[in-house]
Design brief:
Layout (H helix, E strand, L loop, with lengths): L14 E5 L4 E6 L10 E4 L5 E5 L2 E7 L4 E5 L8 E2 L2 H6 L1 H4 L3 E10 L6 E6 L5 E6 L15 E10 L2 E5 L8
Parallel strand pairs: 2-5, 7-8, 10-12
Antiparallel strand pairs: 1-2, 3-6, 4-5, 8-9, 8-11, 9-10, 11-12
Length: 170
């Protein structure tokens, strides 16, 4: 099931995150894709390169023709509800999966563009990163605690949560 949102320009148009009942992974296609969030796909990956890009495990250089839509964008993956402390501890097993953290305070900027610090009081923090080119990057950051749903990723050694759209902030 596609878990990233290609309509917000949050991630590179060639990249897609997907998840099943056991794990998540980034798929990097050879061209920009148009698979909406919630689409069920079958992706032929035999012989494709499995590698890390800046810390994120990905299947690399997948031709778009290797992806077939099984069902339209009607599915959703239930997020793994956890604390930031547990997410940091279990990062290797949970990478690229949808997670949800409740009672989060966001600090570091007045808009989403760039890096914010997420703190849920569990004793750990994690970065909430938003690309400056994301359609929602200029939106105001809430000043009261929120729930954050997003993808657990890494960028050059920094564990991050990336939201797909503003609906990921409740």
């Amino acid at each position: 099931i596609v878990t990233s949102d290609n309509s917000t320009s949050m991630i590179n148009g060639q990249n897609m995150y997907c998840q099943d009942q056991t794990a998540g992974i980034q798929v990097r296609f050879t061209g920009a894709h148009s698979f909406p969030i919630g689409t069920e796909l079958e992706i032929k990956v035999g012989g494709m390169e499995l590698s890390y890009y800046r810390g994120v495990l990905q299947i690399n250089n997948v031709p778009l023709t290797n992806a077939t839509i099984i069902a339209p964008a009607t599915f959703s993956i239930a997020p793994r509800v956890s604390t930031i402390s547990n997410i940091n501890t279990n990062y290797p097993a949970w990478q690229s999966q949808v997670v949800k953290i409740n009672n989060v305070t966001l600090t570091g900027n007045t808009t989403y563009a760039g890096s914010l610090t997420m703190d849920d009081g569990s004793g750990s923090t994690i970065v909430l990163y938003t690309a400056t080119g994301a359609s929602f990057s200029g939106a105001s950051v809430p000043t009261t605690p929120v729930s954050v749903t997003g993808l657990l990723v890494e960028y050059s050694g920094t564990k991050e949560i990336i939201i797909r759209n503003l609906s990921d902030i409740q």
